[in-house]
Amino acid sequence: MTEYAYYPGCSGRATARGYDESLLAVAPRLGMTLTEIPDWNCCGSGLALSVNQVLSLALSARNLALAEKIAPTVVTPCPSCCLTLNKANHVLQDGGAAAAPVQSCLEAGDLKYGGGVRVRHLLDVIVNDVGVERLAQAVTAPLTGKRVAPYYGCQVVRPVAEGDDAEYPHNLEQVIAAVGGEVADFPLKTSCCGGALVATRPELGREMCLDLLRSIGAARADIVVTPCPLCQVTLEMAQHQNRGILQGGALAPVLYLTQLIGVALGLSERELGLQRALMPKTCRRALARTEQQPAL
After folding, report:
1. How far is Cα 9 from Cα 144, in angstroms, rounded to an integer?
2. Residue 165, strand partner residues
3. pLDDT of residue 266 exceeding 50
4. Which pLDDT belongs to residue 290?
5. Most buried of the four, 127, 261, 278, 281, by CB within 10 Å?
6. How far apart, in whole angstroms, are the C-alpha atoms of residue 121 and residue 161?
7. What CATH number is attached to the domain comprising 70?
8. Domain identity same for 167 and 231
9. Residue 113: inside a domain, yes or no?
10. Could you give phi then psi for residue 270, rounded to 5 degrees?
């Protein structure tokens, strides 16, 4: 078992509880020991950086200082958190102009960060640490006959796609193949879903999301899988509000990375938090098994 410091992020305990629950259910079956960072706080992703750079960096730095006491690697399922934590990590490791005031903030809280932590996204860890071969060996209920659309979103591969190819990522495709599914490739798999614009420019955000759904529909996907909590809720809400958008008016459930894996490992709906979906009945229909396969 490999130990990681686990940073769930704010969404993991709110809008994306199913992601957190399914990760905690799947991890031990893949040889991962996740030790949650004690007393972790919001990483400062998004608005904090636009208000106060030192505050934003200090929020992340506090998490890194706490994580350094646990394990050399921090894993998070949220691409935005991963990016934000990495920004603070690079600032403190490089010792630039912002490093000193951030370290002063840590000292005020009786903390110190030595720069010894590596921050990684969950998808990278599953593919490159656990390995697709081990994942495939753990599968007990393969997703045979299911067409799965791999949706990366914009932050998993930008600005740096660690453990993958930034221009032509393939980690999600490897996971889909390992769990027995068929890849339903589509050209917008690394495009932004417009989730960050929903509150500020809703019409633009809506059109960006609908373009994605049309592309997914043209790929004849039964299921969409994403490693991003914001992308998941954005695509799910857009389908819920625009039920005829996909080809033939069908609905394709949007699963978190760990929910897709968990289904193939034979875990229950409640273990994977699937009952929390906006469209739980759609999930059940899309994941329905043949008579020869165990039920969800």
Report:
1. 33
2. none
3. yes
4. 34
5. 261
6. 10
7. 1.20.1050.140
8. yes
9. yes
10. -70, -35
Lowest mean pLDDT among 36-40, 58-62, 93-97, 189-193: 93-97
Note down the domain range covering 258: 139-286
**Residue 46: predicted pLDDT:** 74
**CA dist list (Å): 154 to 55, 158, 167:** 25, 6, 11
Q: What is the DSSP string of 149-193?
A: EE---SSSSSS--TTS-SSS--HHHHHHHHTT-EE---TTTTS--
Helix, strand, coil percentages in the chain from 3-state DSSP, rounded to 5? 50, 10, 40
Q: Taking residues 173-192, what's their average pLDDT?
A: 97
Give the span between the Cα atoms of 239 and 286, in whole angstroms: 15
pLDDT attached to residue 247:
57
Estimate the crossing angle of helix 79-94 against helix 53-67, to 10 degrees.
90
pTM score: 0.93
**How would you list the strands of the sheet with 32-36, edge to edge?**
32-36, 2-6, 73-76, 118-121
